[in-house]
Amino acid sequence: MTGIASLTLEVSDVAAAEAFYAKAFDLGDTVNFRAADTPTTGFRGFTMSLVVSQPSTVDSLIGSALDGGATALKPVEKSFWGYGGVVQAPDGAIWKVATSSKKDKGPATRQVDEVVLLLGVADVKASKQFYVELGLAVKRSFGGKYVEFESPASQIKLALYGRRALAKDAGVSPDGSGSHRIVLHSDAGQFTDPDGFGWETAAV
């Protein structure tokens, strides 16, 4: 298993989701959509992070997401680690846009340097072991709090975070139940991880 090749968000209105994401983030075929009405309430147990190079890019992406109908969960602001904000897309997925830089270093762009999927898991160590046994290599790990896996530069990065800690970082309650409304695609075939996240074979 080399990592996540792409993601599919399960949404109630595919056309509306495609229009929103094209305007908000323009991620191409990194994130796809399919129709689903599986029940879900509250926090879905994951967030997506877009890592960018400078504050003006954060402002641009967050601004276009809000213009497209997203809801602000955490306002864009400076912090000790950098600059960023969190929004919830109309389909319910939570997106964080952030940079480690506190000052612009060049002209404003909309370039996304990294896409990171953070799974909020019940037991970080157990989930880490599950993915290591599937063949993922650990890039960095902080005990039972956070794990990030190696991945090809062209693919989506996978990281694990405790569910409550991830919800706090996103600015929402950790309570939630039902479908995660996300499917991860890789070269490892079809399976479900310990926290109920479903994986499917990536299209060639």
Automatic annotation (TrEMBL):
Superkingdom, taxonomy of origin: Bacteria
What is the name listed in the Swiss-Prot or TrEMBL entry for this protein? Glyoxalase
Q: Which organism is it from?
A: Saxibacter everestensis
